[in-house]
Amino acid sequence: MIPLAIPNLAGREAEYLQECVATTFVSTVGPFVGRFEAAVAAAAGAEAAVSTSAGTTAIHAALVALGVERDDLVIVPALTFIATVSGIHWAGGRPWFAESAPESWTLDPGRIETLLAREVVMDGTGVARHRATGLRVKAMVPVYTLGNPPDMDRLVEVARRYGLSILADAAAALGATYRGRPLGEFGADLSIISFNGNKTVTAGGGGAVVGKAELIDRVRHLVTTARVGSDYLHDAVGFNYRITNIQAAVGLAQMERLDALVERKREIRRRYDDAFEGVPGLRPFPSPEWGRSADWFSGVVVEGMTEPGMKRFVAGLRKRRIDARPFWIPMHLQPPLQHHLADDLTFTEGLWHQVLTLPCSTSLTHADQDHVVAAVRAQLAAG
Q: In terms of Cα–Cα distance, which of 124, 89, 107 is closest to 186?
């Protein structure tokens, strides 16, 4: 089976892991944690970074640090993985599902502006509130879908007008740029990154929050149980969301190869785009003009494909020993989330079942990629 996305552990991972064992620093304290966080901050162009146990816990802690409280509305695209919404839920907030832009598959600034103008009013204290429910609208969580940056300048302008905080779910976007700027300079108050095993750079799991030092200090305090000093005194109900030194060791070895791994992802994306160019019924993933994607996942849009049809298409590829996958089912269609507020999501509802993700591990050989291309063409011809 040609896998969808597996780690590329060809750097100093084994060496660093042996050092962890030799020094007995295998838990949440150890020198690799600080080195890893420094490398992440530098790569993101951010003042500081704090590592967490997962991308989901990074979202949770970051939203708490930004002041999201029970029943606050948090604007988020319906086109995302459920971890984004899980973080909002555990912070006490309520997701408000918004539409994505066809040119990026990320939050559509024009649609957000229209949505807020229609459904939000500023109260006497300058707080944005939902007209119908009176709930406070506190934050916006743009998702960098596939590693694509949203049009952040426009989103930031809208958010500031309504007093909203911005947490960027950049889980798969390390290495992306927006108008020539690195991830930490896109304009979000905080950004999160995931180091899950299927990401371009992995720590075997884990996540990070990047941003201004003052806010990162707040997040760090929360994810280390909000402990004050060396005594067992805690000034808030915090979380035990720390990464281990072992994970950080793997993550640091990966960060040392970040540029090469991201460029390999981009090469894989280019080869798929070139191979499928001009094939009737197929079109490439979007490439927004305002930035450069990290190209975390590669694949193709199969025009006119239905949900059952995509399941059959994927099953056919798996019979050819190719681990292709359909895309995320949108959040507003998920059974536990269907009661939440949602904008008109016509584009999202028409897109998701047409998206086919294809093998894109950084260790993918040209021969295996050529086999995937041939299999997709054959499956398309078979109907």
A: 107
Pairing of strands 128-130, 137-140: unpaired
Report the alpha-carbon distance of residue 215 to residue 109 in Å, rounded.
25
Residues in the chain: 383
**240 and 288 fall within a common domain:** no
The total number of structural domains in the chain stands at 2
pLDDT per residue as tens digits for the range 119-147: 999 999 999 999 999 999 999 999 999 99
pLDDT higher than threshold 90 for residue 196: yes
The reply to whether 343 and 236 lie within a common domain is: no
Alpha helix stretches (DSSP H) within 190-244: 213-223
Q: Which of 154, 144, 140 lies closest to 104 in space, CA to CA?
A: 144
> So which residues are the catalytic ones?
199
Predicted confidence at residue 206, as pLDDT, reads 98
CA atoms within 13 A on the CB side of 205: 11
Q: Which two tokens stand for residue 10?
A: 């060809």
| Residues 6, 361 contacting (CB under 8 angstroms) | yes
Alpha-carbon 123 to chain mean position: 33
For the purposes of burial, counting CB atoms within 10 Å of the CB of 351, is it exposed (0-12), middle (13-18) or buried (19 or more)?
middle
202, 225, 255: which is the final residue of a domain? Answer: 255
Write out pLDDT tens, residues 24-57: 999 999 999 999 999 999 999 999 999 999 999 9
Of 200, 221, 255, the position where a domain reaches its end is 255
CA distance 30 to 13: 16
Domain of residue 363, residue span: 258-382
Q: What is the largest CA-CA distance in the chain?
A: 68
Q: How far is CA 243 from the centre of its chain?
A: 18
